[in-house]
Write a structure and sequence with these properties.
The chain is an alpha+beta fold. It folds into two domains: about 80 residues, 2-Layer Sandwich (Alpha-Beta Plaits), CATH 3.30.70.580; about 140 residues, Pseudouridine synthase I, catalytic domain, C-terminal subdomain (Alpha-Beta Plaits, 2-Layer Sandwich). It is about 20% helix and about 25% strand. It has five helices and ten strands, in the order E-H-E-E-H-E-E-E-H-E-E-E-H-H-E. Strands 1, 2, 3, 4, 5, 6, 7, 8, 9 and 10 form a ten-stranded mixed sheet that branches. The model has no long low-confidence stretch (mean pLDDT about 95).
């Protein structure tokens, strides 16, 4: 399944006993459809308040229901902030997490004097002007293979902190919107939000691009900036073998 969701009303993707989560809502609907518990396996977790346009999750189930029936049935039962965009039968060996070869995230900043009433749950509002060129100069240093320990959140489930970033760029749109678009073969917990928080320090001239590079090379989380808030982050696409170039 390819899933879109607004994470503002949820405690993240992963099931929790005492909180609403994306996984919990979909699994509850699946259980209603097939009459027994069904466990979802996603490409990865998103944290509380983080959104997705292209989350991928799979499940195994003995059923006569078609993928189209699952898609229609789930969308009829789920709240409007979760939508199943695609549902299809996968190979028996498919694993949404372990078969993924990369992901693309976008982080949206609203950089202007006044906030937005409509988009307040989907952007990080920053009133003070940002230097786009300086931020891009620093972001250029992210591409390639690096140890990203400096931008890793505590409790990240990983064997090592080495990742390969294939693209990292800023794009300024109309109305003061800035989009940071980043693709990699994988991400650590809070990695994108910690990178964005540190790049904003560059954009405010609190640190230089060369000092940003020193933070990256230090592998020391204490030297990086604060974690950017969750509402600006979107999981856009999960890449699997055979799909187009991730850049």
């Amino acid at each position: 399944m390819t899933i879109e969701y607004d994470g503002g009303n949820y405690a993240g993707w992963q099931f929790q006993k005492n909180a609403r989560t994306i996984q919990g809502e979909i699994e509850s609907a699946l259980q209603t459809m097939v009459g027994r518990p069904v466990r979802l396996c996603a490409s990865g977790r998103t944290d509380a308040g983080v959104h997705a346009l292209g989350q991928v999750a799979g499940f195994r189930c003995d059923t006569r229901l078609s993928p189209e029936t699952f898609q229609k049935g789930l969308n009829s039962m789920l709240d409007d902030d979760i939508v199943i965009h695609d549902c299809r039968e996968a190979a028996g060996s498919f694993h949404a997490r372990f078969d993924a070869v990369g992901k693309t995230y976008h982080y949206y900043i609203l950089n202007r004097p006044l906030p937005s009433a409509i988009r307040r749950r989907h952007v990080w509002f920053i009133r003070r002007p940002l230097d786009d060129a300086a931020m891009q100069s620093a972001a250029d240093m992210l591409t390639g293979e690096h140890d990203f320990s400096a931008f890793e959140g505590a409790g990240s489930p990983r064997e090592h902190a080495i990742r390969v970033i294939t693209s990292a760029r800023f794009e300024r749109g109309g109305g003061g919107e800035i989009a940071f678009k980043i693709s990699a073969n994988g991400f650590l917990r809070f990695m994108v939000r910690n990178i964005v928080g540190t790049l904003v320090e560059v954009g405010h001239h609190r640190i230089t691009p060369s000092e940003f590079q020193a933070v990256l090379e230090s592998r020391d989380r204490r030297r990086a900036g604060a974690t950017a808030p969750p509402q600006g982050l979107f999981l856009m696409k999960v890449w699997y073998p055979g799909e187009e170039d991730r850049t």
